[in-house]
Amino acid sequence: MLAGLVVVSLGASLELSKLPSDAQLFELLWERAPDLQLARAKVAQARGDYDRAALLPNPQLDVSANTLPVGPSNQANAPVANAWAEVPNYGFGVSELVELGKRGPRQDATRRAYDAAVHDAQEQLRQRFFDLQEHLGEIAAAQARIAALSDLSRDAEHLTAIQRARADKGDASALDADRALLEEEKLKSTLGAEQEHLVAELRACADVLGVPCAPFEQADGAAAFLADPQIAPARSLEDRPDLKSLQATADASRAAETLANRRAIPDPTFRVGYVRDQYLASGNYPNSLYVGVSLPLPVFDHGQADARAARGAAEAAERARVRTIESAREALTRLGEQSQSIEARRRQVRERALPLARDVVARLDAAVVRGAAAVQDLLLARRTLVELLIDARDLDLSAFRNRVELSRVGGAMPGLPQELN
Known about the structure:
Blueprint: H1 2-10, E1 14-15, H2 22-32, H3 37-53, E2 60-66, H4 83-86, E3 89-97, H5 103-169, H6 174-209, E4 213-214, H7 219-227, H8 241-261, E5 269-277, E6 287-294, H9 304-370, H10 375-410
Parallel strand pairs: 1-4
Antiparallel strand pairs: 2-3, 3-5, 5-6
């Protein structure tokens, strides 16, 4: 229901300038993402298995016609006028299997298997959420780069016009005008490549979300999102859904092992029925009841193979959980160190390199207009500024990705859809 409201409020696409909350994005992903629909089916199947395990076995109805006459009758000992009407007897019975020591382990196994399916779906949804965040970061970075390159491209176009006019008057060489034009074309080419990258990331965003994505309305909004993303904080590592799924899988396998071992206990099947006998000439009672019980004999297969397989599955899941926790802790340490390195580089570029490059370009631009500096010096300085601007946005994107990965590895997860709670 919430996802429907989000889609209606967003119209036909997800407008990045009006991003909903993380919980709403979770709901929207769960409802619309194409590759999550199979996870929904698996959760429903696991729930059905658990519900089925709580039911009693169905009773069986037995109906039989017995003592059907075949061949000639023994007229001397049993004179019968109509054998088909007077000889057969008819039985009606009900039988019920009674399980001994198996319902509890079966319910435990299916319950934990259902928990594992839910946790798997949560983890899949969580991974898609962070994939989406990465695409949003790429979109924001591309728009910020496009804005910076567009400004520089306009400056280069203006410089080309000035140099062409000066060359026409003989105040500058035609080579300087051509150099300015070449730099302008290079900037436009870089700008075009960035615009293509933006289109590709918008398409990737739509592929993950299942809804078209519209870019940020303003470059400032894109830069603000990149600098301060709204990403859910990390939780306790043990709360990660994939780790919970491995624990639930191990528990389900242990319960399945118990169930397999208890197959050595035979389950009786009790029967009760009624017989209507028509062969009264022999002295039979016309009405009678019968009761009975049957027991399987677990001599050869008493669950030993299934128990061994379940035990191996439980041990594998437990080992996988331990290894995953160790790997996650190592990754968190490395990501923390990487975060410090990225922040140091960002400060160096933003506080020192970029201001200096802008100042040098501004002074050289003014000097070139006056004819006091060579065009190639301005072009070289502007090229350095372009590289620094792109480096600055790349560092912003690296910091964004680092925060996303810290949240991903740390087990961050916004509010879940009701179906997965």
